[in-house]
Every structure is written in C-alpha cells, then in structure tokens.
Design brief:
With 438 residues, the chain is of the alpha+beta class. It has 15 helices and nine strands. The protein has a five-stranded mixed beta sheet with strand order 4-8-6-5-9, sandwiched between helices. Helix 6 crosses helix 9 and helix 10 packs antiparallel against helix 12.
C-alpha cells in the first residue's frame, strides 16, 4: 500500500501511478499529474531494512529530530523521529541538508517509506483532487505530525518488538493516531531535548503490550481530561487483575488456607480488594518512579480537598488516586471548575505512571510471608526449612524498611509503614516459634 491509497479514491486506484524524479515524486491519475517535492538523496534505499509509522505530536519543530535509543544491554540507537517539516526540501533539516550521516540515511528511508509503503497514510489530510500542480510531500500532513523510522535489523539483534517501541514512544507524546484537542485537554508531550529512550518492558507486562498501547492511544484522543483519566485507568485495571490472579494462586497453594475454608474465604476476599491491589501497583513504581507517584498524590489531594473529602491525611497516594477514580466513575460527582488545572496535571502524571508500571510491574511484588508456611514450620517442618523461612522474613522486613526510607514524603508512606508492621509481626511469630522449639 502506497501513499496513493490515502490520496486517491478507491475506484480510481487502478488508474493511478507514481514515479520518482530528481525533485521528488510525481503522481498521475487518468492523465492528471501532480508533483510532490521531497529530499531523497539516495534512491537506492533498501526498504526491507526499515520499518516505521506516522505519529501526531506537539514536539514537531523542524529542528527536533529525535534519536530513539534502546536501553537494554548495550544502549543502541534503533531509529529516529522526524518532524513532518523536515521532509520539505527547503528545510535546513531535510535529508539533503543534514550533516549527521545516520540522520541523513534514516530521513531518506522515511521519505521513501511514506511514499512506497504509506506508513503515514492515517495522517494524510489532502486528496489528489485538492493538490496544486506542485507542492511538498510535507504539505499532505498537518504541521503537528512526525514520522518514526526504525532499523529492522538492529531491532532484531536487540530483541526489540515494534509494538513495544510504539507504546514506549507514547510516553513522550508521539501518538500513532490523531488526538483531538477539546475542552482544554491536550495530549501529553515531552519537549525535553535529546534522545528518546526505550527501556525494557517488565516480564509481567509483555503479553499486554499491544493492549496497553491501544489504551494509551485511546486516552490521547479523548475530548476531556476526565475521559482521558478513565481511559488511562484501564491499564491499572489490566495489571490489577494480574495482581489478583497472582495472589489467588499464592493463597490456593497454601496448605493452611486449604484446610480452613473460612480462613480461605477471608484471604480471597482480601485479595479481591481493589484498593489494596492499587496500593501494591503503586509500590511497584516506588522502585524507579517515586517522583511520578508524588505528582499523582499532590494533584489528587488538591482535587479531593476542593471536594471536601475527609481523611486525606491518612490516605496514601494510591488511596487518593483510587478515590478520584471512584468519585468520577461511581459517585459521578462534578469536579469543581477551580480544580481543572489540577485535573490536567493529574492526567499528565497518570500518563507517566502507566509507563512506570510497564517497566516495573511484578504481579507478585512484596507478597506477604504465607501464614501457612509459618504454621507448617511449627508443625514439624525441617530445621533447614524453618531457617529458610527466617531468612526470607528478615529480608522482606529489611526491604520494606528500605523502601519506606527511600520514599519518605513520596506518597506511599502510610501503606509502606503498614507493610513494615506486617513483616515485623511475621518475623516475630517465627522467632517465637524458634524459641519454643529450643
């Protein structure tokens, strides 16, 4: 599929053709010819070595050509983002005018992919009939468009999936479909200079990459921040369900719970508590994105405070985030107009929270020491098994204390203190049983 599919009506495609010229590409439909100028210094480009797609972004200044670097193992440049204006041959940043050899090669490939493979057809805003005799390839698109081009061979060597790169770039505000800006909501964008880094995805998220990518893209197209927030929350729902399955599997594998149906019921009910699962997800993020959790907390607290919500001082960041969701979805309360700026900040913070989860999610993170294992150790477990239980309990208590110290003021203090207390009690129980055994 070439760019003709976006420019020419379907019933005229059989009579349409295109040909490359020194100045660009000419398109012919039933004897009518239109020329599109574009810099393409190397006509011998091998398209099998590249892949790409069009994106819409607010990071679209011609000078902002962004290298895409994969951070797994050796950090390697796997491609570039080219603002659509760079395909104007008069631009100082067109392929013919670039000093950087690699940028020149990738830009040349991107221009060819746009025409030959139609990689940005979804963003074409012109028709063949509406084109003047001569124009630029870049004129087919709105100014807030860009093209992502990747090296297929390097991606294969690094084991990088195209779907994950598409998701990862949305963290910076490169959306593969066209967001709408209404009611004051603008999709997230990062205008920070320099490279666009692609971090490895968490093993627990791998099979949800495509689904999460679609959800984030949908969120970017919403007409209001409320709709965007609810859309982003679907990612939390996906990972919360995985957390639930992990907890159920752990509980079901515990002999003590299996032997006591009432205790089993209580533990399963606890695992089904969505608020607690959301707290566990936020704890995942404390390992590498505590600043994002803090941003969520501050914005959510201001919104809830404006709505006279009680008990904010005893809520964790996750509690506040979950409360805002419940206010919007279940209580169906209107957020005060004065809180609108805070809502916009919250949506931006949640956008980044999604990517913190994508990179750090572990469905079994901080799973508690199983009560059944403690009981079994006291009921005849071997000395080595009991010692191992003590080691695990001490390690988990130490980890909880460490995270509490690192996250001071980061929004999860209340929840992490409860984790320290829980692991302290578990260790104390083991130590008492050890003393009894002596």
């Amino acid at each position: 599929m070439s760019v003709l599919s976006a420019l020419v009506e379907h019933d005229l495609l059989d009579s349409a053709s295109h040909a490359w010229e020194a100045s660009g590409v000419s398109i012919s439909v039933r004897g009518l010819v239109r020329s599109l100028r574009v810099a393409r210094p190397d006509p011998a480009v091998d398209l099998s070595r590249y892949t790409g797609w069009g994106v819409q972004t607010l990071d679209n200044a011609e000078s902002q050509i962004r290298p895409i670097v994969y951070r797994g193992g050796a950090r390697r440049t796997i491609g570039y983002v080219f603002p659509i204006g760079t395909f104007d041959p008069a631009s100082d940043f067109s392929a013919s005018n670039l000093d950087d050899e690699f940028q020149r090669i990738y830009s040349n490939a991107a221009a060819t992919l746009i025409v030959e493979r139609g990689i940005a057809n979804d963003l074409v805003r012109q028709t063949f009939e509406g084109l003047p005799d001569e124009s630029n390839l870049s004129d087919l698109f709105d100014a807030d468009c860009a093209v992502v081009v990747l090296a297929s061979r390097i991606m294969a060597q690094e084991g990088v999936d195209e779907g994950y790169v598409k998701l990862a770039l949305q963290e910076y505000g490169y959306f593969p479909t066209a967001p709408q800006e209404k009611a004051g909501y603008r999709p997230y964008v990062s205008l920070e200079p320099g490279r666009r880094k692609v971090a490895p995805v968490s093993a627990g998220v791998v099979r949800f990459v495509r689904e999460i990518s679609e959800v984030v893209s949908i969120a970017s197209r919403q007409e209001s921040p409320i709709a965007a927030f609810i859309a982003y929350y679907q990612v939390v729902e996906i990972l919360s369900h995985e957390r639930f399955k992990s907890e159920v599997a752990r509980i079901a594998d515990d002999a003590v719970y299996r032997a006591d149906s009432w205790l089993l019921k209580d533990k399963l009910s606890e695992a089904a508590n969505e608020r607690k699962r959301v707290n566990a997800l936020f704890a995942n993020c404390m390992r590498g994105a505590s600043n994002v959790v803090g941003d969520v907390e501050r914005a959510a607290k201001r919104i809830l405070g404006a709505m006279a919500t009680e008990g904010l001082d005893t809520m964790s960041a996750a509690d506040m985030f979950y409360k805002v969701r419940n206010v919007l979805v279940h209580d169906q309360k209107a957020i005060p107009a004065s809180s609108y700026p805070d809502l916009l900040k919250l949506v931006d913070a949640v956008h980044l929270l999604v990517f913190a989860l994508v990179q750090n999610f572990d469905p079994a993170f901080d799973a508690q020491v199983a009560t059944g294992s403690i009981a079994e150790a006291g009921a005849g477990g071997s000395e080595s098994e009991f010692s191992e239980q003590m080691v695990v309990a001490r390690r988990r208590l130490s980890e909880s204390k460490e995270w509490l110290e690192k996250s001071a003021g980061g929004g999860q203090d209340i929840w992490l203190r409860s984790e320290v207390e829980r692991h302290s009690l578990a260790l104390a129980g083991l130590e008492r049983m050890a003393g009894a055994a002596d």
